[in-house]
Amino acid sequence: MLHESAMTQALELAFSGVRGANPLVGALLVSAQGEVLAQGHHRGAGTFHAERAALANFFAHHPAGVDLSSATLYSTLEPCRHQGRQPACTQLIIEAGIGRVVHGASDPTSNGGGAAVLQRAGIEVLSSVLREECEALNHRWTAAQEQHRPFVTVHLAQTLDARIAAADGTSQWITSQASREHTHRVRSRADAILVGTNTVAVDDPRLTARTPAGDLTQRQPLRVVMGLTPVPKRCKLTQALPEGEGWVQLRTRDPLEALQELAQTTHGGYPVKHVLVEGGQSVLSAFFAAGLVDEVFAYHAPLLLGAGTASIGDIGVTTLREAPRFALDPAESGPVQIMDSDVCVHLQPKGDTCSPES
Q1: What is the distance in angstroms between the CA of the first residue and the CA of the last residue of the chain?
Q2: Whole-angstrom Cα distance, residue 36 to residue 128?
Q3: Rounded distance between C-alpha atoms, residue 3 and residue 118, angstroms
Q4: How far apart are alpha carbons 143 and 87 in whole angstroms?
Q5: Measured between alpha carbons, how far is 329 from 317 in angstroms, rounded to an integer?
Q6: More confident site: 92 or 355
Q7: Cα dihedral 243, 248, 254, 256 in deg (nearest 10)
Q8: What would the pLDDT profile of 250-262 be if each residue is shown by its tens digit?
Q9: Residue 80 contacts residue 111 (beta carbons within 8 Å)
Q10: Which residues, including other chains, have CB under 8 Å from residue 214's CB and lie 6 or more apart?
Q11: Phi/psi at 103 (nearest 5 deg)?
Q12: 192 phi and psi angles, rounded to 5 deg
């Protein structure tokens, strides 16, 4: 019961993170007497892994070299053994002298095997505590890994009647300033932003990530156009502007083919592991129809158009039983946020539960 209680706390910590290139992970360092010594969670690509965050929080208030041989480190995911943007968690755990590690889900990728590394170092390892809940936490991230493709977040900025443009084609701006600022925060952590050729022709977007003040963020995503129609030579994203390095056109209408090509692409020295899809209708519909959407931010503005372009077109559904279903996602800032006059709903495809409470 102690293990399950601690793992439940670790799961709650994990939901404070953001989805994307890396899985959500929570970690808890507990003494032999059951006292929580430190906690941590993964905050996104390039930041401390949950185990390292917990250890950093502990050593910020305790001297280095303190005896942790009787302590237990709980993690929702098997500690990694690979060096990426951050060092291997297994090495940090070994150096800290922790006596026992308890994890929920095993790492499903080729980077797994951390438990065996810890055991060879003499650390007691207990696995599969609340395994189903820990696997459900990242079920869509796992699906992306199995399909050898980036994690896909979809952006829907629409009216109450699910229109993304009026009958005359106008679309700027349907949603509020607060909604657009949130979109830019999501853009800044994505490795790539993908739109269709029609969006480029009609809206001429720059596809940049900017601060609320309008300045470019330090990290800019790769700008991606999907489709067969040539990109206009004078459109903004092709110009020599300081919006970030590079853009690419993927000459395909197949979303899986596009994602698998992006999976072989690097940007800023790192592989593309998280793609933000912003539309328009044809591209969004293709991703939904193919079951390649892992996360949705749907921004609903208090407007009615009655006519115009719907956000989603035909996705091959002919009866209610065939309709893809989604679940509220409690990750990040929760499933529902008020952004000025808009309502932002955060969703994941249903199929596995998105939280211990689901």
Answers
A1: 21
A2: 21
A3: 18
A4: 25
A5: 24
A6: 92
A7: -70
A8: 999 999 999 999 9
A9: yes
A10: none
A11: -130, 160
A12: -150, 150
Query: pLDDT tens digit string along 83-92?
Result: 766 778 999 9
Contact indicator for 3, 99 with CB cutoff of 8 Å: no
Q: What is the mean pLDDT of residues 296-305?
A: 96
- Pairing relationship of beta strands 266-267 and 270-271 according to DSSP bridges: antiparallel
Structure tokens at 60: 């910020």
Token pair in block for residue 17: 């993170």
In the chain, how many H helices and how many E strands? Answer: 10, 18
Take residue 284 and report the two structure tokens written for it.
């969004």
For 100, residues 6+ apart whose C-beta sits below 8 A from its C-beta are 71, 72, 73, 123, 124, 125, 126
Residue type, 111: N
Q: Rounded CA gap, 310 and 111, in Å?
A: 41
**79 and 51 in contact (C-beta within 8 Å)?**
yes
Q: How many CB atoms lie within 10 A of CB 155?
A: 22
Whether the model clears a pTM of 0.90, i.e. scores above it, the answer is: yes
Q: What are phi and psi of 322, to 5 degrees?
A: -85, -10
Side chain identity at residue 295, one-letter code: E
CA angle 255, 221, 296 (to 5 degrees): 50
Structure tokens at 42: 């993964």
Contact 41, 16 (CB under 8 A): yes
Looking at residue 348, what is its pLDDT? 96
Q: How many residues does the chain have?
A: 358
Tokens 């053994």 appear where? 81
Residue 310 to residue 156: CA distance in whole angstroms: 11
The b/e string for 183-211 (b: 16+ C-beta within 10 A; e otherwise) is bbebbbbbbbbbbbbbbbeebebbbbbbe
Average confidence (pLDDT) over 260-271 = 92
Q: Identity (one letter) of the amino acid at 288?
A: F
115-120 long-range Cβ contacts below 8 angstroms, 24+ apart? 115/78, 115/79, 117/81, 117/90, 118/79, 118/90, 118/93, 118/94
Could you list the active site residues? 51
